[in-house]
């Protein structure tokens, strides 16, 4: 049995490496926000467009992903996705303007279906007692990719500020953000090559009538005596289900017989992104600058976010098949909601005031502070009011380019409480709904509609996530940190109440056993 488990682990690990590429793509952009804003003179909504372009692209990709993976197979779809990641990374590095950068990142968004397809593939090759762990690998590689991106951004930022000949020779000081985005190129190429070594999903092969091919793949994953019963179980499940066109398969998701699976999928698909996780992960240095710790420290805090994400995702991996899916989700949402309420409260108590000493500190950073003299001694009770005053005094472009330094020298806040709240939220998310959502998606839908259902609910996730990413910069400058954190905390509270009522336990059950309990006759 150990040999079969190692084989399943190997195939799952290769596919889950796509999560690493996704993590890189998602987090590398966070370090470039200040640089591209200044270089291309971007507004809040344009910044949101650059960051959220992949989230917009994946919406379109998910509309056809189900058809592609059902018609061509899971492996072929994954190879297409890997190629798109590679092309997007190269295009982003070379983008000469705002429009081309958005286009390149949109292309990468077409590859963001890697998360849902990886969950589908791994769920279809994994033994029942390993499925939770193996599908969770997708989340682990994602957070490792996020962590690697934050660390790479931090190192590149430090290098760009170093007075060394090699920095100028490589153009790191002049093309800082391009070097950050270029980190993705080599891993994307490696993943594309590794995917050539995986087999097709045996469940897909059975559904296509390629039984000999399915037996060959299953022979690598399960003992010989289990192959025929497994094939028969898959065939019986498919035979009992309605057949038809792609449109009919989509319509099947909404029928009463799948009502339980539908509502569980819909609620958790909305709940995961509405927590605000992508606002923090995609804009991490910007978020930490709001606490007043400065740009360098903000990049370092982003690295810590990555480390916390990895630690608690590994913990989730160890617990998901022991404690079960339901306890992790409910506990994690409760913990995350309390954490964000604390952040909101801390920002509501903050004040912003420039002093003569802070003006001198700003002058030392080469900011022309003459326009700020009239504001010395004026206390602002919100970040929104303070930023508007800075825009009027310095001009919006200058104020936005130096926002981290301005906030750092004016804010009075319990920074430790905010940082602790954010880190606790990151930990709670990665212990619970982060990895568990994809595990549930791979389990709760019958085999005959899984190729359509998982991309459909991933589409819901991506649509909500897109709006979170697109409008966060605008929200930050118009609503303020207090209202944003309060909004996300309230969303978590509603999600917790709904999932407490709806969420089933699926640990240690085969896909067919789960189907029998969740699908009405």
UniProtKB/TrEMBL annotation:
Transmembrane segments: 12-33, 45-65, 77-96, 102-122, 134-157, 177-198, 261-285, 297-320, 327-347, 417-440, 452-472, 484-503
SUPFAM superfamilies xrefs: MFS general substrate transporter
Principal place of residence: membrane
Compartment(s): Membrane
Family, as annotated: Belongs to the major facilitator superfamily. Sugar transporter (TC 2.A.1.1) family.
Keyword Transport: yes
Protein name as catalogued: MFS transporter
Gene3D superfamilies, per the entry: MFS general substrate transporter like domains
Membrane topology note: Multi-pass membrane protein
Protein keywords: Membrane, Transmembrane, Transmembrane helix, Transport
Major facilitator superfamily (MFS) profile domain segment(s): 11-507
């Amino acid at each position: 049995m150990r040999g079969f488990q190692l084989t399943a682990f190997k195939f799952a690990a290769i596919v889950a490496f796509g999560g690493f590429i996704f993590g890189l793509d998602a987090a590398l952009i966070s370090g470039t926000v200040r640089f591209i804003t200044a270089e291309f003179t971007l507004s809040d909504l344009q910044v949101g467009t650059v960051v959220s372009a992949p989230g917009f692209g994946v919406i379109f990709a998910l509309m056809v992903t189900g058809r592609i993976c059902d018609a061509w197979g899971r492996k072929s779809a994954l190879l297409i996705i890997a190629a798109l990641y590679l092309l997007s990374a190269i295009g982003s590095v070379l983008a000469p303007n705002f429009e081309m950068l958005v286009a390149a990142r949109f292309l990468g968004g077409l590859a963001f279906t890697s998360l849902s397809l990886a969950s589908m593939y791994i769920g279809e090759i994994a033994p029942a007692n390993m499925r939770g762990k193996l599908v969770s690998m997708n989340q682990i590689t994602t957070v490792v990719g996020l962590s690697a991106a934050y660390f790479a951004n931090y190192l590149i930022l430090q290098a760009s500020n170093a007075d060394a000949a090699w920095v100028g020779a490589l153009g790191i000081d002049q093309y800082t953000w391009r070097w950050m985005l270029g980190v993705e190129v080599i891993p994307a190429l490696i993943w594309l090559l590794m995917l050539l070594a995986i087999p097709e999903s045996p469940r897909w092969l059975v559904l296509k009538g390629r039984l000999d091919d399915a037996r060959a793949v299953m022979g690598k994953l399960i003992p010989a005596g289990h192959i025929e019963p497994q094939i028969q179980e898959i065939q019986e499940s498919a035979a009992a289900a309605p057949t038809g066109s792609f449109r009919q398969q989509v319509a099947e998701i909404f029928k009463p017989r799948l009502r339980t699976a539908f509502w569980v999928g819909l609620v958790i698909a909305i709940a995961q992104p509405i927590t605000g996780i992508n606002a923090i992960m995609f804009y991490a240095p910007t978020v930490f600058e709001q606490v007043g710790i400065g740009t360098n420290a903000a990049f370092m805090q982003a690295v810590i976010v990555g480390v916390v994400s990895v630690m608690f995702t590994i913990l989730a991996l160890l617990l998901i098949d022991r404690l079960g899916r339901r306890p992790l989700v409910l506990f994690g949402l409760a913990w995350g909601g309390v954490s964000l309420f604390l952040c909101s409260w801390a920002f509501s108590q903050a004040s912003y005031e420039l002093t003569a000493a802070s003006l001198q500190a700003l002058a030392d950073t080469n900011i022309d502070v003459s326009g700020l003299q009239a504001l010395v001694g004026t206390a602002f009770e919100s970040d929104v009011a303070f930023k508007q005053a800075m825009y009027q005094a310095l001009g919006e472009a200058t104020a936005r380019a130096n926002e981290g330094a301005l906030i750092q020298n004016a804010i009075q806040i319990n920074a430790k409480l905010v940082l602790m709240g954010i880190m606790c939220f990151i930990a709670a998310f990665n212990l619970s709904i982060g990895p568990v959502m994809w595990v549930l998606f791979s389990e709760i839908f019958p085999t005959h509609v899984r190729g359509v259902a998982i991309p459909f609910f991933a589409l819901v996730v991506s649509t909500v996530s897109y709006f979170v990413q697109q409008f966060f910069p605008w929200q930050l400058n118009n609503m303020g940190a207090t209202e944003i954190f309060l909004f996300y905390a309230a969303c978590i509270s509603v999600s917790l109440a709904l999932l407490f009522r709806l969420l089933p336990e699926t640990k240690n059950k085969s896909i067919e056993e789960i189907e029998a309990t969740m699908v009405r006759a």
